[in-house]
Design brief:
Layout: E1 47-51, E2 60-63, E3 68-74, E4 77-82, E5 94-96, E6 99-101, E7 108-110, E8 116-118, E9 127-133, E10 136-140
Antiparallel strand pairs: 1-10, 2-3, 3-4, 4-9, 5-6, 6-7, 7-8, 9-10
Bound molecules: FE2/S2 (inorganic) cluster.
């Protein structure tokens, strides 16, 4: 027998060390702030919040996109406050009855007068001007 038998053919499974390009898709970091129409400031100009009858007498309504809470004290008397927390400026996103609850550190405020109900915030919410024009609630910075 001339020569030696060829070495057993080795099957080399060499993993391809190149990751599929599709798996490397890197999503650009979003700077945030443009999703969902939310902002992180109270209105700097008067904003239309919708029909005045949307807020029942004795009730409060939270307008998330505008960062405003409106309480209807009586048939024709409304109060409005910025819902930017006075602790570290988080937008408050929860209203239970008249109690506003900040998601960041748990401060709580009274939506009818802006007063702090629970720390760590110590300063009341900033009051806004509010009026009814043509059946719509319009709130904005105080003059
Ligand atoms: S920012 Fe609202 S409790 Fe801290």
């Amino acid at each position: 027998m001339p020569g030696t038998p060829p070495p057993a053919r080795r099957t080399v499974l060499r993993a391809v060390a190149i990751a599929p390009a599709a798996g490397l898709g890197i999503t650009a970091c979003s700077s945030g702030g443009d999703g969902g129409g939310t902002s992180t400031s109270a209105p700097t100009a008067p904003v239309d919040l919708g029909a005045s009858d949307d807020v029942k007498v004795g009730a409060s309504e939270l307008y998330l996109d505008e960062n405003v809470v409106v309480s209807r004290i009586s048939d024709d008397q409304y109060k409005a406050f910025s819902t930017i927390c006075t602790h570290r400026q988080c937008p408050i996103n929860k209203l239970e009855g008249h109690k506003l609850i900040c998601p960041c550190h748990g401060s709580q405020f009274d939506a009818t007068n802006g007063k702090v109900l629970h720390d760590p915030a110590v300063a009341p919410l900033h009051e806004l001007s509010v009026k009814v024009e043509n059946g719509k609630i319009v709130a904005g910075p105080k003059a």
